[in-house]
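> example.struct
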C-alpha cells in the first residue's frame, strides 16, 4: 500500500500579542545575560561559547549596553558591581553556534524587544569580539537573519593558526 502526502509550506505566523512577546523576550534575555555573566565571574571565563538559545544569550553578553540593562533590571547587590565589571572585562571572545529561539519566533523579534542588541558601537564603546560558527549544511533562516542584523563575523573553518573551530 502506498501513501502520497502533499506538503504545503506556509510562512511562520505568530498569533500571540506582539507586546507580550517583546516583554517576555526582553525579560528572558536580560535575565540570561546576567546569569551567564555571574557564572563567568565565578569561573573566571575568558571565552564564552553559546549554542542554540544559549548562543543568543552569549551574543548579548558581548554588548555592554545590553549587559548594563540586564544588571539594572535584576536584583544586583551593590557589592557585586565590581565582580561583574571584572568578569566582563576578563572575557576575550564570544563564540556562538546555531543561534535560535524557541518555536517559530523570528530574529527580528529579539531586536524589537531589545533595540540596543543591534545598535552599532558608540565612539567610546567597545564590544567583545563575537564569532558565529556555521553548520556544515548551512545556517538556519533565524541564524542568517540574526547574523546579518548584528554584523557578526562568521566562520566555517579556522579563525587563525591557534584557534580552530569545527562545525557539526
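> example.seq
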Amino acid at each position: 500500500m502506498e501513501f502520497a502526502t502533499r506538503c504545503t509550506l506556509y510562512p511562520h505566523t505568530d498569533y500571540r500579542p506582539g507586546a507580550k512577546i517583546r516583554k517576555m523576550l526582553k525579560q528572558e534575555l536580560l535575565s540570561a545575560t546576567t546569569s551567564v555573566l555571574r557564572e563567568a565571574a565565578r569561573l573566571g571565563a575568558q571565552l564564552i561559547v553559546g549554542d542554540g538559545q544559549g548562543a543568543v544569550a552569549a551574543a548579548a553578553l558581548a554588548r555592554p549596553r545590553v549587559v548594563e540593562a540586564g544588571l539594572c533590571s535584576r536584583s544586583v547587590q551593590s557589592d557585586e558591581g565590581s565582580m561583574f565589571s571584572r568578569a566582563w572585562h576578563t572575557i576575550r571572545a564570544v563564540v556562538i553556534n546555531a543561534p535560535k529561539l524557541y518555536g517559530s519566533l523570528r530574529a527580528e523579534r529579539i531586536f524589537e524587544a531589545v533595540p540596543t542588541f543591534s545598535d552599532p558601537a558608540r565612539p567610546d564603546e567597545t564590544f567583545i569580539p563575537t564569532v558565529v560558527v556555521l553548520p556544515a549544511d548551512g545556517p538556519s533562516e533565524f541564524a542568517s537573519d540574526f547574523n546579518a542584523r548584528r554584523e557578526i563575523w562568521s566562520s566555517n573553518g579556522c579563525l587563525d593558526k591557534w584557534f580552530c573551530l569545527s562545525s557539526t
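> remarks
The longest strand covers residues 47-51.
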